[in-house]
Amino acid sequence: MLELTKPHSAAGNAPIVDLSGVRQVYHKGDNADLVVLDDVSLSIREGEIVGLLGRSGSGKSTLLRIISGLLPATGGDVRWCGQPVTGPCEGLSIVFQSFALFPWLTVLENVEVGLEAIGVPAAERRRRAIEAIDLIGLDGFESAYPKELSGGMRQRVGFARALVVHPRLMLMDEPFSALDVLTAETLRTDLIDLWIEGRLPIKSILMVTHNIEEAVLLCDRILIFSSNPGRVAAEIEIGLPHPRSRVDPAFRQLVDDIYARMTQRAPAEKAEKRVSEGFHGTGIGMALPHLSTNLLAGLMEALAAPPYEGKADLPDLAATLQMEVDDLFPIAETLQLLRFAEVAEGDVKLTDLGRGFVDSEVDARKRLFAEHLLAYVPLAALIKRVLDERPSHRAPFTRFSEELEDYMSEEHAETTMRAVISWGRYAELFGYDEQTKQFDLENPA
Fold it and tell me: Which of 118-122, 246-250, 441-445 has the lowest mean pLDDT?
């Protein structure tokens, strides 16, 4: 039979995972090193569900790989059950975001894979796999192939495969993000019910998420990750009893508090730094999200309209617009960078200039956007200046992308360039030919 473990208080338990001063750096040849994680310290004890909450790119998934022993840390100390981690950890399993099933194997065979890898005899493998499949709610689908299953069922197979080895710790890397809203909610509910009832053959769970409500719904403790580089910015204990209700005022207050921490206002003397603190780097080296101007204008229009009248609570706005943190924050922070909005303490508020944008006609909007793009996005100002100074009023994409790669990865450089191209076209500051990969002035002086 499955070894069932009744969840219990983690207080006083020795940590099964202990990280101290962990750092992860990727060397980029002649370019500046990319620091993904810096001075990360945390512990995980038996009997608790811990959430790593932060936006995409903050290094959460990298940290999971370091904890599992799949990726050696550049620096710091990583310990599993008191011993230094030097390779893949025994007694630890992972549930991936992308299901990661073998399409040529049946459900039963997929679940048995981990047991086979550690040398469990065939009869024992089959017995334990069937028990795990039954536990996770897939009884009757043992002989089905992944292509015959829905997304939610495939993720259940992933859970069964992680549980069947009876791990002390189960790592979950955004396990619900690839599912539709209703399927994800059902799977979350089933998982927490099994945990509360002590029916999961595991001691602890560490999950990566960027969904604030999901973290409050499931976790006993939440570690908030900042970005660029990834660090533990705050730790929050969740004292609410299970099962938790999203409409409970205490639940809503916790969600609001976490939004506020993730948009915490800097001291007044650092207000200028706060405007761009959501982005990696400064000046030309500022990494930007590729957002359409329709999204930026749409959020400003939503804020200006009833019931917000220019100011909104971020959790309420996210729920109304049905947007995740990863989707909403970059839009709000880009508006802050452009001085069309202010983001602080869990709220987003239109500035007078933002209200002016909303009230303007199309041509006036473009002129205002162009002024702010040149004033507050150094890369856009550089492109415009180079085009103005060259007799041909033309410059290749690589003239600017290669300079960006001195500050960031090629992937971030590409995304940043695409963002500025999109914004510059909308503002009619410059044109860009996709075929020749050339910038030009559409109406040179």
Answer: 441-445
Q: Burial letters for 65-77: b for 16+ Cβ neighbours within 10 Å, e otherwise?
A: bbbbbebebbebe
CATH number of this structure's domain 283-440: 1.10.10
Give residue 205's Cα distance to chain centre.
18
Residues 345-364 have a mean pLDDT of 92
For the domain made up of 15-260, give the CATH fold: Rossmann fold (3.40.50)
Residues 229 and 263: their CA atoms lie apart, in Å, by: 17
Calpha distance 318→312 (Å, rounded): 10
Confidence (pLDDT) at 267: 42
Q: Are 161 and 114 in contact (CB under 8 A)?
A: yes
Q: Give yes or no for residue 6 having a pLDDT over 60.
A: no
Residue 395 banded pLDDT, cuts 50, 70, 90: very high
**404 within 8 A of 416, measured Cβ to Cβ:** yes
CATH 3.40.50.300, the chain: domain bounds: 15-260
| Alpha carbons within 13 A on the beta-carbon side of 245 | 4
Could you tell me the end-to-end alpha-carbon distance of the chain, in angstroms, rounded to an integer? 80
Give the separation between CA 76 and CA 70, rounded to whole angstroms.
16
Residues of the chain with CATH 1.10.10: 283-440
> Is-contact 67 90, C-beta < 8 A?
no
Tell me how many degrees the CA angle 95-97-102 measures, rounded to the nearest 5.
70
Q: How far is CA 274 from the centre of its chain?
A: 21
C-alpha span between 279 and 289 (Å, rounded): 9
Helix (H, G, I), strand (E, B) or coil at 202: coil
Do 76 and 21 meet the contact criterion of CB atoms below 8 Å apart? yes
Cα separation, 237 vs 216, in Å, equals 10
> Across residues 90-105, what is the average pLDDT?
86
Question: How confident is the prediction for the chain on average, in pLDDT?
Answer: 85
Q: What is the DSSP pairing of strand 394-396 with strand 341-344?
A: unpaired
What is the per-residue pLDDT for 61? 86
Q: How many CB atoms lie within 10 A of CB 403?
A: 14
